[in-house]
Specification:
Layout (H helix, E strand, L loop, with lengths): L6 E4 L15 H14 L3 E5 L5 H13 L9 H4 L3 E7 L2 H11 L5 E8 L2 H8 L3 H18 L3 E6 L6 H13 L4 E6 L6 H14 L7 E6 L6 H10 L4 E4 L13 H10 L1 H4 L10 H12 L20 H9 L19 E3 L5 H10 L6 H17 L3 E2 H9 L10 E8 L7 E7 L5 E7 L3 H13 L3 E10 L8 E9 L6 E3 L6 E3 L2 E7 L2 H34 L1
Parallel strand pairs: 1-2, 1-8, 2-3, 3-4, 4-5, 5-6, 6-7, 7-8
Antiparallel strand pairs: 9-10, 11-12, 12-13, 14-15, 15-18, 16-17
Helix pairs in contact: 1-2, 1-12, 2-4, 4-6, 6-7, 7-8, 8-9, 12-16, 17-18
This protein binds 3-methyl-2-oxobutanoic acid and zinc ion (ZN).
The site of zinc ion has 6 residues, from loops.
Length: about 550
């Protein structure tokens, strides 16, 4: 094992997906997992399989399709990622995690139990001795199923270090191969976290044969600093999410840790195996699929991260780019508007180009994208990678598409009432037409869509922006909504077992921003409809079982 290698453990699809509104369809999860693999992450935590049968199935699909080499390639040559599933420290969760990850060439079960006094007393209502017994029993059970087992003492940042040494030592004896140290509530400072990691490494029996991992939350904005401090103290795995998404203020962001390690290599001396030129693309994909926009001033992936507005900075940049730029935008995959396709490009060229960008489309999806590229080429002089990404991602999640937009007509302006007429194709290919008035063209369109779909909801967020520069740019819209009766659908948090109302994100792109808005709304509604369908089929199954 290379002592200078930092394993990048990506938990975008598990801890990241726990952030409000980040609900992803299984097709979107699979696409993100494929691209995380392409990015070069060593471990993909693909989900929490015990949460629901759909979550289990989504992890299983990733294990099968991303966790195995392509047909004809050997496992070693293909460098497939480890596929990991999260489980609370109980047999049912561990069984579900194993069922989900077993098809992967390199499966991992990640189990956890809280060790801080406050969690043990109030959340678990367990004595410390019982916690130690449960860890021993459950790690050993996980290890009887899977050769690669990670254990996390939840809320380690607020746990008694002496107790941690004991619990971790027992986890090692029971077969844990990775020990992950979470700062679950983002409470520690870099200096404290560094001391915690060094203390664990110095005092835990058997730790030298395991990998120590760090998992930080960003409640005080210290997640990246704490992760880097943990690495300097001896951790060799960092748990991160793309764009830093996650519960509350989020997790440590992948792009910040990877670029800090690379840009300040002389300070840290570590490598990660990440192809950094993929970062910006994967960041946009995660933002589009989750419906969670990236703040403009976000390090590495924010829209302004490489923009130089002030005259004095622009002057310096013109004289020498390193005056104000410590990384080249190209190193994270920001190309300055690359022309890729024109009006006369063929379907095959598009297919090859999309494959180079990391998209695997079915023949039907390729046909649809090709038609839209041609349509866009009539309206827009140059089509860039960013445009292509938007066109592909705007069609993702097709396996949950109940309603699709076939036509939209709006009248608006200062003279009269904004009116929209929409034509949707529904389940069973039925065509529905509806008109509505609203406070503006978007509101009118949404009201017309609501009248057809008939699903009460609360629109929580609406964001719109242009993808590229120029008046002919594609506009992209992200929305977030939730069911308005509060009764459906809910999701269970692996940490506290509590359920909370799920919110759903949607994405749409088009040269017409009202069309983009309607598509984004429909894509979120389709996810909500799917969740409704799954929960009602589950309750009718439960009813049948009770009879
Ligand atoms: O933050 C946390 O403690 C977690 C654990 C499940 C590792 O996400
Ligand atoms: Zn976490």
């Amino acid at each position: 094992m290379n002592p200078n290698f930092i394993t990048i453990f990506d938990t975008t699809l598990r801890d990241g997906e726990q952030s409000p509104g980040a609900t992803l369809t299984s097709a979107e999860k699979l696409e993100i997992a494929r691209n995380l693999s392409r990015l070069g992450v060593t471990v993909i935590e693909a989900g929490f399989p015990a949460a629901s049968p759909d979550d289990l199935e989504a992890v299983r699909r990733i294990a099968e399709e991303v966790g195995n080499p392509p047909p004809g390639e050997s496992e070693l040559g293909a460098q497939v990622p480890i596929i990991c599933g999260l489980a609370r420290a109980n047999k049912a969760d561990i069984d579900a995690a194993w069922q989900a990850v077993a098809p992967a060439a390199r499966p991992r079960i990640h189990t956890f139990l809280a060790t801080s006094p406050i969690h043990m007393q109030y959340k678990l209502r367990m004595d410390p001795e019982d916690v130690v017994d449960r860890v021993r029993e459950m790690v050993s059970y996980a290890r009887s199923l899977c050769p690669d087992v990670e254990f996390s003492p939840e809320d380690a940042g607020r746990s008694d270090p002496e107790f941690l040494y004991l619990v971790l030592g027992e986890a090692i004896k029971a077969g844990a191969t990775t020990l992950n140290i979470p700062d679950t509530v983002g409470y520690t400072t870099p200096e404290e976290f560094s001391r915690l990691i060094s203390g664990i490494i110095a005092n835990t029996p058997g730790i030298e044969n395991t990998i120590v991992s760090v998992h930080c939350h960003d409640d005080l904005g210290l997640a990246t600093a704490n992760t880097l401090a943990g690495i300097q103290a001896g951790a060799r795995q960092a748990e991160v999410t793309v764009n830093g998404i996650g519960e509350r203020a989020g997790n440590t962001s992948l792009e910040e840790v990877v670029m800090a390690l690379l840009t300040r290599r002389s300070v840290f001396g570590f490598e990660t195996g990440i192809d950094t030129t993929q970062i910006s693309r994967v960041s946009r994909m995660v933002s589009n699929y989750t419906g969670i926009p990236v703040q403009p001033n976000k390090a590495i992936v924010g829209a302004n991260a490489f923009a130089h507005e002030a005259g004095i900075h622009q002057d310096g940049m013109l004289k020498h780019n390193q005056t104000y730029e410590i990384m080249r935008p190209e190193s994270v995959g920001i190309s300055r508007s690359r022309l890729v396709l024109g009006k006369h490009s063929g379907r095959h060229a598009l297919k090859i180009h999309l494959a180079e960008m990391g998209y695997e489309l079915t023949s039907e999806e390729l046909d649809r994208t090709f038609a839209r590229v041609k349509e866009l080429a009539d309206k827009k002089k140059t089509i860039t990678d960013a445009d292509l990404e938007a066109l592909v991602e705007d069609q993702a999640g097709g396996d949950h598409e109940f309603f699709r937009l076939e036509g939209l007509q709006v009248t608006c302006g200062t003279m009269g009432m904004p009116t929209a007429t929409v034509r949707l194709v529904g389940p069973d290919e039925e065509v529905h037409v509806q008109a509505a008035i609203g406070t503006g063209p978007v509101d009118a369109s949404y009201k017309a869509i609501d009248a057809i779909v008939g699903l009460g909801n609360i629109l929580l967020e609406f964001n719109i922006h242009a993808i590229t520069e120029g008046i002919d740019a594609l506009g992209e819209v992200t929305v977030r909504l939730q069911a308005d009766n509060g009764s459906l659908p809910k999701r269970t948090s692996p940490q506290n077992g509590q359920t909370h109302v799920r919110t759903f994100g949607g994405y749409g792109a088009d040269t017409d921003i009202i069309v983009a808005s309607a598509k984004a709304y429909l894509s979120a509604l389709n996810k909500l409809l799917f969740a409704h369908q799954m929960s009602s089929s589950r309750s009718s199954q439960a009813a049948i079982l009770q009879i």
